[in-house]
Write a structure and sequence with these properties.
The complex is a heterodimer. Chain A is mostly helical. Helix content of chain A is 72%, strand content 0%. By secondary structure, chain B is of the alpha+beta class. The radius of gyration of chain B is 16 Å and the shape is globular. The chains are: A mainly alpha, B alpha+beta.
């Protein structure tokens, strides 16, 4: 049951980081466009490139890459399939917006609104993908909403000009991070950790993630959009620690735990 | 689905010979380090032989983005189609029993399919047929009196909502069933009908 290495999960963490950052960024840009039509093309290019990069990484980890076209067959039941479907639409929409902005095409408000809705849906679906009964570390309500909250935190940093508006998002993000911390501590000494050797690295990344979030809020007091950089870094660290602290409690792990307990008793 | 085929495992009879593991490998010609069935050993020297539990609501089937899993209408056996699998390994993450194995050479996953070709010919699965101790058996769930069978043994394997198709017969269980009465003579097509 143990996964071979963190390499596969690294691809996934980069994938979900890119999508969360791109979706959060685009949600913020969408609100900015609808309210003031003030959009820098460089930001849009950044979002489009980030989501394109995001889609390249999971493709690399597939065992049979040519069969990836069939990934939309499971839309009715699989959250992964839905994530790929919504993510693909989002990617196409990003490049469509780049093209429209570059060619100064007017009246694209509806594309912006649709893309904003897709961005929020994508953030929600990313949370649902990891809501698996076999993954006790992730099988918790907070894990569904966390990508959405952190994405909206980034969106708020991009679209708002008032630092006070950022504080509720920071509080929500920190609250979810505390729940995660509690769960990390719960499974810390468990033999069921998927990557036990690198655990200190993932825990370190998690602590750093909380500190970077705090730094983001601090920078927002200087200029609100300064917070965007630390929040993006915070998302990267968050996904890294999210995959790294995974736990699986299958029969092998449960038997190993029984053996450890028996050994401790014998000592 | 008409009925669910279920594994029955008696820990009192299992001696941990790993015959079921070897039979599974021989029949399905899997790679040396790729084992669909595993025998776990407890500190009290009790053994538990487990492969895919062919759950009534299989998480792998729900998770698969390419719809590479299907559940047979006739007996609820969960089968993986290697022709459409893209090797994303999401089903491995979704399976609570670690029953889905990664084959790095083929770049896809694989798992126990309950020897469905043998079942269709009226034969027992290889693991069941080879278990000379009679610890591992299988039946359609309607053909067995569930009294005396438990859903957990030593460890908690039962997950509500997933409903794995494996039952255990424990020495400590009250009203332990008479095995001969519970598992009548070997499976044949006629008997199934």
């Amino acid at each position: 049951m143990k996964r071979d290495s963190f390499a596969d999960d690294l691809f996934l963490s980069v994938f979900s980081f890119c999508l969360i950052a791109a979706a959060g960024c685009l949600a913020g840009l969408c609100i900015r466009y609808v309210s003031s039509q003030d959009i820098a093309l460089s930001w849009l290019y950044g979002v489009a490139l980030l989501s394109t990069l995001g889609f390249l990484f999971p493709f690399l980890h597939l065992g049979r890459k040519m069969r990836s076209v069939g990934a939309l067959k499971g839309l009715s039941s699989s959250w992964l399939s839905r994530e790929i479907g919504i993510g693909s639409l989002f990617l196409v929409g990003c490049w469509a917006l780049v093209w429209c902005t570059e060619h100064h095409i007017q009246h694209v408000k509806w594309i912006w609104i649709c893309q904003g809705i897709l961005a929020v849906a994508l953030l929600w679906v990313i949370g649902m993908v990891y809501h698996l009964v076999a993954q006790p570390m992730w099988f918790h309500g907070s894990q569904i909403y966390h990508p959405l909250v952190v994405g909206l935190f980034l969106a708020a940093a991009i679209c708002f000009h008032e630092v006070l508006l950022l504080i509720p998002f920071w509080i929500a993000d920190s609250g979810f991070a505390l729940i995660r911390l509690k769960r990390i501590m719960q499974f810390r000494l468990d033999k069921a950790r998927v990557f036990p050797d690198l655990y200190f690295l993932f825990e370190g990344a998690f602590i750093l993630r909380v500190l970077v979030g705090l730094l983001g809020l601090g920078l927002a007091f200087q200029e609100v959009y300064y917070a965007a950089g630390p929040i993006v870094f915070c998302i990267l660290l968050d996904r890294f620690s999210f995959y790294g602290t995974a736990v699986q409690i299958g029969p092998s792990e449960q038997f190993e735990s029984l053996r450890q307990k028996a050994f401790a008793k014998w000592i | 689905m008409k009925e669910q085929r279920t594994f029955y495992f008696d820990a009192d009879l299992c001696m941990g010979c790993q015959g079921c593991v070897a039979a599974c490998k021989n029949t399905n010609q899997t790679k040396s380090d790729l084992m669909w069935r595993t025998v776990h050993k407890s500190p009290e020297l009790l053994f538990l032989s487990m492969a895919c539990n062919h759950c009534e609501n299989p998480p792998c089937l729900q998770a698969c983005p390419t719809k590479s899993y299907f559940k047979r209408e006739t007996d609820g056996v969960v089968i993986h189609n290697p022709e459409t699998c893209m090797g994303c390994r999401y089903c491995q993450m979704a399976c609570p029993y670690g029953a889905i194995k990664w084959n790095p050479e083929q770049g896809i996953v694989s798992k126990c399919h309950f020897c469905f070709e043998r079942l269709d010919e009226g034969l027992e699965p290889a693991c069941v047929q080879t278990c000379f101790a009679g610890a591992l058996t299988q039946r359609l769930s309607s053909a067995v009196k569930e009294k005396g069978c438990s859903k957990n043994l030593l460890i908690s394997t039962w997950i509500e909502g997933v409903d794995p198709s494996i039952r255990y017969i424990q020495a400590s269980a009250e009203g332990k069933p008479d095995r001969m009465a519970q598992f009548p003579p070997p499976l044949t097509k006629e008997a199934e009908r």
